[in-house]
Structures are given as structure tokens and as C-alpha cells.
From TrEMBL:
Coiled coil (residue ranges): none
Name of the protein in question: ABC transporter ATP-binding protein
SUPFAM superfamilies: P-loop containing nucleoside triphosphate hydrolases
InterPro entries in alphabetical order: AAA+_ATPase, ABC_transporter-like_ATP-bd, ABC_transporter-like_CS, ABC_transpr_LolD-like, MacB-like_ATP-bd, P-loop_NTPase
Length: 218
């Protein structure tokens, strides 16, 4: 299994008291699985994605990624996990302002020790950002930034891609192209894709759909 979640729970302290967001999630995803995670606003989709990404820790339960419980790692261990094993496509693009598009796209691949100019060129081509390579993030529209951020993630060939509304800022044509790219990567390399989306149309294109309701997978 690439991802095995066991009895995962997470709550937040709020001014109104304790908010139990995830109440015992069990989930198994294998290599090459591509899965849509849906659910009402506030149902805990981003919370779950953040836990699997090692950005936050659960209250209880296990997050076993390729046989290792990442919730037991210290901050350094989780940072290494994020650098080498996961690709994150989140709504905040977090492009590096001082680097141009080409350098942003190569950045994670270099950090992960998997810099591959041929593959990066192919991504640039498929994402339609070839004319933007010498621009800086602040000189891009939000849709362009989103495509660059996706290129940066996929350039490192992560075995696990976690995406939160990856096509949220894109028009239909660009959104379809990005989804095609993510699915073909998942099928071609056996990488596992877990994607949060509000779009049923998008969810329908993935092999499996999970729906979060009342803190559980329905
Ligand atoms: N750091 C936090 N402190 C307190 N409450 C939080 C925190 N982060 C999230 N929440 C709450 O936890 C619940 C789940 O939030 P989450 O962002 O996971 O939902 P979501 O399903 O991704 O929602 P959306 O579809 O609107 O993005 C929400 O009620 C949210 O207000």
C-alpha cells in the first residue's frame, strides 16, 4: 500500500469548543490509484490532505506511507518525507518570488535529486507555459501560476501526489489539460493521486471517489 490510514482522528480547539473534524478514518490506496475526495465545505477534506502530506499531526491513528508511519516522525523527518516522497498541489501556489518560471519548475526536482530537463521540457509544453519561462511569479496570472506550480510538483516525479482543487483557478480547457496530465502521469509511472475537488465532473474522471461526511468516509 502507498497510503494506509488507520482510525485517524483530528480535532481543533475553537472559541466554541472542540471541533471534531475527522473521526476514525480508514483508507487504503495503492500504487497508481487515482482518487477524488469530495464532501461539503468544512467536512475536513483539506485537513485530511494536510495530515497525509505531513503538514500536521493527527490526534490519534496511523498514517502509514509505504510502510512507515509518518505521524511518528519529528519535524525534520516529515520535512524530508515531503521533499522526497510527496508532491503537493495546493491552492496557495507558494512559487518562489525570486526565481523565474524555469527555475521554479526545476526547484523541487533538484531538491529531490531528480532534476530531468527533458521531462521538465515536456511538462512545460503540456502545461502551455513555454512562453513564460523567464517571467517571475508576480508577472503571472493566477491560472498561469497554478500551472507553473503543478509543473514544479510533477517535475520531481513524486510517487504520491496530493492535490487540493488543482484546477480551481483554471478555465475549462486548461483544467482539462492539467487533469489529463496528472492522470497520465499517475497511469504512466504508477504514482498515486489523491485529489480534493468540489467538481463532480472532475471527480467523475477519476477511478475512485471518496466522500467525507460527519468525519468519516461514507
Ligand atoms: N486550524 C484550525 N483551527 C480551528 N478550526 C479549523 C482549523 N482548520 C480547519 N478548521 C475547521 O475544520 C473544519 C474542516 O476544515 P477543512 O479545511 O478541512 O474543510 P474542507 O472540507 O477542506 O472545506 P472547503 O471545501 O471549504 O475547503 C472546518 O469547520 C474548519 O473551520
Amino acid at each position: 500500500m502507498v497510503i494506509a490510514l488507520r482510525n485517524l482522528s483530528k480535532s481543533y480547539e475553537t472559541a466554541e469548543g472542540r471541533l471534531e473534524v475527522l473521526r476514525g478514518i480508514d483508507l487504503d490506496l495503492g500504487a497508481g490509484d487515482n482518487v477524488a475526495l469530495t464532501g461539503e465545505s468544512g467536512s475536513g477534506k483539506s485537513t485530511l490532505l494536510h495530515l497525509v502530506a505531513g503538514l500536521d499531526r493527527p490526534d490519534a491513528g496511523e498514517i502509514v506511507i509505504r510502510g512507515r508511519d509518518i505521524s511518528k516522525l519529528d519535524d525534520r523527518g516529515r520535512a524530508a518525507y515531503r521533499r522526497t516522497e510527496v508532491g503537493l498541489v495546493f491552492q496557495q501556489f507558494n512559487l518562489i518570488p525570486s526565481l523565474d518560471v524555469a527555475a521554479n519548475i526545476a526547484f523541487h526536482a533538484k531538491l529531490a535529486g531528480r532534476h530531468d530537463p527533458v521531462w521538465e521540457n515536456e511538462l512545460v509544453e503540456r502545461l502551455g507555459v513555454g512562453t513564460l519561462l523567464t517571467r517571475y511569479p508576480e508577472q503571472l496570472s493566477s491560472g498561469q501560476q497554478q500551472r507553473v506550480a503543478i509543473g514544479r510538483t510533477l517535475a520531481a516525479r513524486p510517487g504520491l501526489v496530493l492535490a487540493d482543487e488543482p484546477t480551481g483557478n483554471l478555465d475549462e480547457a486548461n483544467g482539462d489539460a492539467v487533469l489529463d496530465l496528472m492522470l497520465s502521469l499517475s497511469k504512466g509511472t504508477g504514482s498515486t493521486l489523491l485529489m480534493v475537488t468540489h467538481s463532480q465532473k472532475l471527480a467523475d474522471r477519476l477511478d475512485r471517489q471518496l466522500h467525507l461526511r460527519s468525519g468519516k468516509i461514507a
